[in-house]
Every structure is written in structure tokens, then in C-alpha cells.
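User: For my dataset I need records formatted as: sequence, then C-alpha cells, nothing else. Please produce one.
Assistant:
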Amino acid sequence: MEQELIKVNSFINLYLFKNCHLDIKRITYLEKMVPPSLKEYVSHYSDNVYKIQSLLCYLTLLQLHDELICFNENGCPYFPSNQIYFSISHNENDVILAVSKKPIGVDFIKCEKYDNYLKQFLTSDINASDEEIANIIASKEALIKLNQLNLTYLNIIKKDDEVLLYKNIDDKKIVIAYKI
């Protein structure tokens, strides 16, 4: 597994964990290091790679900020003091953790071949490129996370006064949403 710190600007850091492969011993080890509430929260994940990725992010957060992580009614994790904000996005064997002094949302997506049905659902332009569709999907998911909503808002959420930053890492796109 590789870990990389990416400084986006003066108030946003990204922690990228690449190649998080399945290792049951690692899950057991990581679970021992987190508070019981986080262990219970990740126990609901059926995908063990997703569990490892989440545990790595939560452990990183606990090293950065000594406060218990809570979850809102939509299942979104947060720190109650609002001194530090974070967002997590999973993509295959990689996971990204965005940490900020301001509310933040992040999505990490691999550009794929999208069918016309999805293109019509997301945009009126059926000739939109796959990269444009990936940008739309990632932007919407980042905005959903920023506003601590769930995916049922995917087709209705729109950019308002938020700032969207786009970064490419390997063959994946990262979209960061935050408010000024």
C-alpha cells in the first residue's frame, strides 16, 4: 500500500491511499486501533477492501484531530466541534481522504465508457464526452458530501456558491467541493 499527502491549497490536504489490498489480519489490527463506535460503523460494510480503506482514513483523522467521530442522520461522518472537516471517497483499491478547515466534499472517480441512458439522465447533451460525464457525476457526489446528504439527491443537487476543484491522479479524477 502507498500513502501520499497532496497539499491542494492553504486549507485543504488530500491523503491518498493506493493499492489497499485485502488482508484479514490488517482488518483485525486496524479495528483494534479505532474507538468501538467506528468499529461498529465499518462492520456494516460487506466489502473488506472498503473496510480497510475506511479504517485507514479514520485512523488518519484520529491522528490529526483528537475528537470522537460522529455520524449524522444520513450516515455522514463528522467532528462535532467543526474545527476540522473531512470527506472520504473510495475507488477500486484506492481511497482518498480530504481534510479541511472549511466544510468539504470529495469524489474520486475513474473515467469510464458511459451509456446514452446515463448521459440523458445527467445532461441534455447526448454527445457529451465520457470525461464530461465523469466530471458531472463526481461534481454531484462531491456536492452531496459537502452538504452531508445521501445519493438520493444525485439528480436534484446543483452547484450554488460552492467552489469545485478538479485534479487528475493517474487515470482517475478527483473533484473537491467547498464553500468560500
